[in-house]
Amino acid sequence: MQQAHARPRRGGKRLALVLAAAAVLGVPLAVQAAPNYPFASHRQAYVAGTLSPSVGRAAADQSTASFYRTWKQRYLVPGCKAGEYRVKASTSDAYVVSEGQGYGMLITVMMAGNDPDAQALFDGLHRYNRAHPSNQNPALLAWAQDVNCKNVSGADSATDGDLDIAYALLLADLQWGSGGSINYLAEARKVIAAIRSSNVNANTKLVTLGDWVSSSEPNYYNATRSSDWMLGHFRGFASKLGDSYWTGVLDAHQNLIAKMQGSYAPNTGLLPDFIVNTNTTAKPAPANFLEADTDGWYSWNAGRVPWRIGIDAAVSGDSRSRNAARKLSQWIKVKAGNNANNVRSGYKLDGTVTENYNSTFFTAPFAVAATVDTDQAWLDKLWTYLASGGTSDYYGDSVKLLSMLAVSNNWLKP
């Protein structure tokens, strides 16, 4: 049974991520440029040996496109100004969060060629973002707004949203070029420079929790969130910008993944939501460090890790990513008894179940990790779970769709 869940957010604030009513996009959309890498063209090859669902590419593409239409209808809605779009994350105060805006931009740029409105939707998401700058670094996005597009819970940034936004802008340059009304590459450069300035620890080269963190608060400055370790993004920043700084950032995160798996999860490969003391001896965060009593466990942040590491392994071939993803995949297959419905919604790092029910959010990312392992039957079971499952909530459905894009060989790199 797939269940929705109220996910803890920054500072212990919980957002009620509940099922949203279908919303109809009401703003006329302009004529779009032809995409260079249309959905289902599979023009970017994955690394040799990467597994794909046995149903075949056409069927996997069809399932992914079908779920995209459902996701779009439920969560992609107009902003408060003409030409703006936003992803509806909740019906509570934080109606929009920067994480969701990043997801929306990744999804729409990868669905170009299937959805004729993809570029207009992408541009509308970007316009919304630029209308809501962080009060710490205006090139970044304020992390949450209410239904009336007013900032709530502070106007600073959260690292994950800005990383996805920057990467999506690089993909937009790849997909449509930067000669139109928005210079995607120039916008990406601005966001990437801001992330480097405000969201990376200058000493460790690890991403921080947001631009609200400073070196004057060492407990937070030397902490990091595992779900922000977007290896492929760092790799893309380095290659597209020709900037070796980001290779150093990539290596710092790869080293920390290896250390955390080796020291705290040698049998599972699980990473905790938050890691502290990164300037000395990194370790899982204590309970209630930032969000919840599960901050030091594999919970509602770290559940995205198998997707983030797995897709980097699939498109880059980095053996470090592949080894980390395989450890996760092989462990969960055994833990779940080879049954996707038995994946649970949270674990301690030793594999002890903390929330004893199944959810789309926790199951979907393991399908991405399975693509870089060797068990075709396990991947097929996970894919069947995704393709035949229904909807859950904004968070679960967004991660499910992004995982389906990855598993169906529709992920892009700049």
Automatic annotation (TrEMBL):
Q: Give the EC number.
A: 3.2.1.-
Q: What keyword terms does UniProt attach to this protein? A: Carbohydrate metabolism, Cellulose degradation, Glycosidase, Hydrolase, Polysaccharide degradation, Signal
Catalytic activity field: Endohydrolysis of (1->4)-beta-D-glucosidic linkages in cellulose, lichenin and cereal beta-D-glucans
* Gene3D superfamilies found in the cross-reference section: 1.50.10.10
Entry keyword annotation includes Hydrolase: yes
Q: Does the keyword Hydrolase apply?
A: yes
Coiled-coil boundaries: none
A GO term, aspect molecular function: cellulase activity
Query: What Pfam families does the entry give?
Result: Glyco_hydro_8 (PF01270)
What superkingdom heads the lineage?
Answer: Bacteria
Residues in the signal sequence: 1-33
Q: Which GO terms describe its biological process?
A: cellulose catabolic process
Q: Give the top-level enzyme category.
A: hydrolase
User: Which residues are listed as membrane-spanning?
Assistant: none
Q: Which residues form the active site?
A: D160
Spell out the family assignment given in the record's similarity comment: Belongs to the glycosyl hydrolase 8 (cellulase D) family.
Q: What is this protein called?
A: Glucanase
Give the organism, scientific name.
Lysobacter enzymogenes
